[in-house]
Amino acid sequence: MQIRLPEEVKNIINELNRAGFEAYAVGGCVRDSLLGRTPKDWDITTSAEPLEVKRIFRRTIDTGMKHGTVTVMRKNTGYEVTTYRVDGAYADHRRPESVTFTRRLSEDLLRRDFTINAMAYSEGDGLVDLYGGVSDLEKKIIRCVGDPDARFGEDALRIMRAVRFSAELDFTIEPATREAAAKHAEELSEISMERIETELRKTLLSDHPEKLIDMSELGMTAVFLPEFDRLLATPQNTPYHMYDAGRHTIEVIRNVSKTKEMRYSALFHDIAKPDTRTTDEKGIDHFKGHPALGAEMAGPILKRLRLDNDTIQTVKKMTYWHDFGIKGDFGEKAFRRMLSKLGSEYFDRLMDLKQADMLGQSTYHREEALKIMQCLRELKRQTDEKGAALSIKALKINGKRLQELGIPAGPEMGRILNLLLEEVLEEPERNTPEWLENRVALLLHAGGYDIGRGEKTD
């Protein structure tokens, strides 16, 4: 079976071979090559120990000498070269306390997580597949190397990786591996949230984010995102919906753009529905106030997941405003106020989420929903065309001029700027230096300021 190795990878393998050592491309790069995908990284495994690798290559970085890894630099690109090893005990369900170097490739491949990641390749020896990786690729299954109970007991993060690979590759987790994953799910509590979030994010960004339901069924989200489990347990008895809140959320995730911000926005947009659900006398469910409460809930949860501040801000905005216009009771003024608070630069992302939200609902009143979205886009076009001021920065007056007119810098200036913005949002044509300065004069008079001096009079 032929795999095309990059020239630098071939050169590194050849140099190790010439020095009397075995060497192979290994792991995900072999898997992806067999699947016809372009590998993101090329890892190399070798019988040479770290110091031996360093003697062979001129430019190296001591990436993880304790665990046998040396990065070999070629043309400003690093290639990780790792010594065959056998892992010691895993006291923290994440990393071995010690490793023992070995000269046998079979022992190194045996320590790896899944059969599809336990294959090696070199042009001299061809494909080395000791544990059925090719067969599992053909069957489209995720299966642990050896005993799944032992593999997950060693490294609990492998539980999430099993689901993540099944999402990225559209594979099924085979029964014994799935059973062991459920058994060890609680051990994820010992894994850093940064590593958990990485696997969650990769699952969300895959073509099959519905695999998040597998994480729930196997007990994983109970550890790091119990709020999603509550969504799955929340029915939506309303003609507007055909799924429970959790499966609706999955449909929204599938239909938004594949960006971290939008996939997380979709995940959190209805996060407060379990807390706001009421049922009327006709048996119809209502979720009044869930966007505002959801935005409030999203911040702490996303911080718990170690998301960056930009993503948190985006998700909170999307969650808060995702139902805007749903009843069609808005006009130009309400739209401008919404856009001012949202931020014009977020509008396209909001429409992306609203479109996906609609596609995740029933077809009941879908024509009306489409008309509302069309109306929102038209209002945005008109707002842009008119150049309406939507922020304090867009006002035709600034802090320097306000000081010249007698407004002291500080909270009072901020209050007056916000008042001016409110009035310009009400009537955009008011955004002229003349009108704004006249309005400031009136505010000064009403507030007891001596214009030109910036001092309050008795």
Characterization of this structure:
The chain is α+β, with helices and mostly antiparallel strands and 458 residues long. It is 51% helix and 11% strand. The chain contains 23 helices and 15 strands. The chain has helices at 7-18, 28-34, 50-56, 105-110, 133-139, 148-154, 157-169, 175-184, 193-204, 212-217, 221-224, 226-232, 245-255, 260-268, 273-276, 290-304, 309-321, 332-342, 347-359, 366-386, 399-405, 411-426, 433-447; strands spanning 23-26, 43-46, 60-64, 69-74, 77-83, 85-87, 99-101, 120-122, 126-128, 141-142, 172-173, 278-279, 285-286, 449-450, 455-456. The strands form 5 sheets. Strands 3-4-5-2-1-8-9 form a 7-stranded mixed beta sheet. Helix 12 crosses helix 13 and helix 19 runs antiparallel to helix 20 (366-386). The longest helix has 21 residues, at 366-386. The protein starts with 6 loop residues before the first helix and ends with a strand. Residues 450-458 have low confidence and may be disordered.
